[in-house]
Amino acid sequence: MSSNPKDREKEIAALESLKYIKDGMKVGLGTGSTAAHMVKGLGRLVANGLQVVGVPSSDATETLAIEVGIPLTTLDKAKRLDVTIDGADEFDGNFQLIKGGGGALLREKILAYNTDINIIIADAAKQVERLGKFKLPVETIQFATTSISKILEEMSLSPILRMKADQPYTTDEGNFILDIDIFDVDDLTTLNTKLISIPGVVETGLFLDTTSIVIVGQGETTKTLKK
Ligand SMILES: O=C(CO)[C@H](O)[C@H](O)COP(=O)(O)O
Question: Where does this protein hold substrate (predicted)?
Answer without folding.
Answer: 31-34, 86-89, 99-102, 126
